[in-house]
Specification:
The relative contact order is 0.15. With 216 residues, the chain is α+β, with helices and mostly antiparallel strands. The protein is 38% helix and 26% strand. The radius of gyration is 37 Å and the shape is globular. It contains 5 helices and 10 strands, in the order αββαββαββαββββα. It starts with a helix and ends with a helix. It has a 5-stranded mixed β-sheet. Strands 3, 4, 7, 8 and 9 form a 5-stranded antiparallel β-sheet that branches.
Length: 216
């Protein structure tokens, strides 16, 4: 009887020890899991913090949408930019009297504005300086309201070649254009008003070489 009781006591002690051991292992695993979750949360927060500046930089690097009345200057230029009527009014002004025919009949007006050549020079057109008069291979596309578009050879706007100056007009007959409408392109040498582009919103500089050479 004594031996049986001793054996039962030993078995009970063994079971109790095993239960304590298992409980300790489970607590250790839970602690490690909690610590891992905390570390993961810290890592995620750190990653989020490190990603935030780059996301902000990308947002700043994105091109802002063109506001009403703005003109985007781009194409084969080193420094594309946009300009508004308010910007143009701050620049030196030129006044021209013009006479041309349109669908409404003969027109006579006095316009005030900034030479187109000056506006484009600010964007630094990329003409081939290695070629004689490389700028003569250039052209300018002007886009206005309703996707209306007209094209100019660079020599037509360059004062080194042309007698008259194409203007980005800010007023007509002393009346300022509405800021939301944008400037109007004025072409004094034209006898018809087809290239008097209203509500101008884009000026694009290009060169003819890719088109001409590609056609060979």
């Amino acid at each position: 009887m004594t031996c049986g009781r001793q054996n039962q006591r030993r078995a009970g002690l063994a079971l109790a020890a095993a239960a304590l051991l298992l409980a300790g292992c489970g607590q250790s695993a839970e602690t490690k899991g909690a610590d891992g979750a905390k570390d993961g949360a810290k890592g995620g927060a750190a990653a989020g913090a490190s990603a935030s500046p780059s996301s902000s930089a990308s947002a700043k690097a994105s091109v802002a949408p063109l506001g009403p009345g703005g003109v985007r200057v781009g194409g084969e230029v080193a420094k594309p930019y946009s300009v508004t009527l308010a910007d143009l009014r701050k620049l030196p002004q030129t006044s021209v009297e013009v006479r041309f025919t349109s669908a409404k009949g003969e027109q006579r007006h006095t316009y005030q504005g900034v030479p187109l050549h000056d506006v484009l020079k600010t964007a630094e057109p990329r003409f081939d300086a290695a070629r004689k008069n490389g700028q003569l291979r250039g052209f300018v596309s002007a886009t206005g309201g309703g996707d209306y578009r007209a094209v100019f050879a660079w020599a037509e706007i360059d004062p080194g070649f042309a007698k008259s100056q194409v203007l980005l007009a800010v007023s007509e007959d002393g009346v300022a254009f509405d800021d939301a409408a944008g400037p109007r392109l004025v072409v004094p040498q034209d006898t018809k008003g087809g290239r008097y582009v209203s509500e101008l919103n884009q000026l694009w500089v290009g060169v003819v070489d890719p088109v001409v050479d590609g056609a060979k």
